[in-house]
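Re: the request from the purification team.
They wanted to know what the chain is likely to look like in 3D before they choose a buffer screen. I agreed to run a prediction and write the result into the notebook, where they can find it.
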Amino acid sequence: MSLAQILESFPAELQLPIARLTEALRDEFGVRRSDFDDLKFIVRELAQAQQRTEQRVEELAQAQKRTEDRVEQLAQSVTDLAQAQKRTEGELDKFRHTFNMQIGGLGARWGLQTEEAF
């Protein structure tokens, strides 16, 4: 039933006040077409913002993965360097030992020859 049909069912002296009351209620509590249009626009913008956010999160996730891969490579490089340093220290210890023995032997020989010369 339409609003006009409902108003006609009231006595004539009440029809105008009820129509005004109905209009006032519609103005106060009613939802206008423009409200729906505004709401649809806002929802559309939110959906687009959500898509941009999801895309950015995906880009950040990929960047995070690249960073994690790079950190793993760096950790492996540090491990390799530590092992190389240990090998170098071992070779240096061997060299020191050999050098000391040769210098000691040379000193002993030089010392004996010097003593004989004196």
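For the purification team: The radius of gyration is 47 Å.
Please add any questions underneath this entry.
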